[in-house]
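Data card: per-record layout.
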Amino acid sequence: MQNAEVLKIRSFNRFYTKTIGLVDRYYLNTPYTLIQLRVLYETRYSSDCTARKIVKTLQLDEGYLSRLIDSFVKDGLLQKNRSEKDGRIFYISLTQKGQEFVEMLDEKANESIGKLISHLAIDELKAVTQAMETITKYLSTESYD
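The structure for this 145-residue chain is written out next.
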């Protein structure tokens, strides 16, 4: 492994995570961390969402995820419904309040990225997005939307 490339990648990671606010304690000026918001996001965009699906997708500890889900249920953002076929399985979905919250988050995230790229010329924006597509292509083992 080439040490110079590893250092460049680590440097870029530090730059990018700081630039888009991933190192902030609370993401997008919400009372939640990025990982908490990712749980809501996965719930919204996963059909027949279960804790097991989220654990697999986000590689979270099951106990930690269970506590997150319970806190979101308490906050009125998520609901759990027992499977009719297998009583051990609970399907997780957003409540109306949760749906509205995630939609607001999407808008805030879009605005944040919009501000970040607002100074770029069209050709610069294309170069940035193309570079991101290239990074995703070479480093991904699965697809992300």
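Known properties of this structure: The CA atoms of residues 18 and 24 lie 8 Å apart. The longest strand covers residues 78-82.

See the next section for split statistics.
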